[in-house]
Amino acid sequence: MEAAALAVFGDLVAGGVSQVLGKPTHGSSLDNTLRVVALEPTEWVLCDIHITALAGGYAQGYAFLWSETGRLLATASQSMSVSPQGSNTADPVPEAQRPG
């Protein structure tokens, strides 16, 4: 697995916002960071994505990228502006509420 391919997986952090809100969203990256730990051949990459903040139309999150052998390949983090899919990008997504 090449570092450039891991960067593509790291950009999937934005998709985690849709999971938090339970509806499709559009995210525009403000910054992306990839920290490579190891490069090894793998047929697939497990992306363990966590959204750490969602407020005022912005979100932050990180991901652990694992190989099929269970080795940590990289960590990724991303900040993004977020809006409901199909809406005017000026319409912010409401703040997420922590369950229960």
Entry keywords:
elongated, 100 residues, Thiol Ester Dehydrase, Chain A, single chain, 4-stranded antiparallel β-sheet, alpha+beta
Radius of gyration: 14 Å
Helical percent range? 10-25%
CATH architecture: Roll
- Count of DSSP strands: 4
Order of helices and strands: HHEEEE
Low-confidence segments, given as residue ranges, are: none
Give the biggest sheet. Answer: 4 strands, antiparallel
CATH superfamily membership, which one? Hotdog Thioesterase
User: What strand order characterises the main sheet?
Assistant: 1-4-3-2
Mind telling me the CATH class?
Answer: Alpha Beta
Look at the structure and give the mean pLDDT.
Answer: 87
Report the structural category.
alpha+beta
Number of helices: 2
Assign an overall shape. elongated
**N/C terminus separation:** 40 Å
Write the CATH fold name: Thiol Ester Dehydrase, Chain A
* Total domain modules: 1
Write up what this structure looks like.
This protein has one domain: Thiol Ester Dehydrase, Chain A, CATH 3.10.129. Helix content is 15%, strand content 44%. The chain has a 4-stranded antiparallel beta sheet with strand order 1-4-3-2. The N and C termini lie far apart (40 Å). It is an alpha+beta fold. It is elongated, with a radius of gyration of 14 Å.
How are the secondary structure elements laid out?
Layout (H helix, E strand, L loop, with lengths): L2 H8 L4 H7 L3 E12 L9 E10 L2 E9 L5 E13 L16
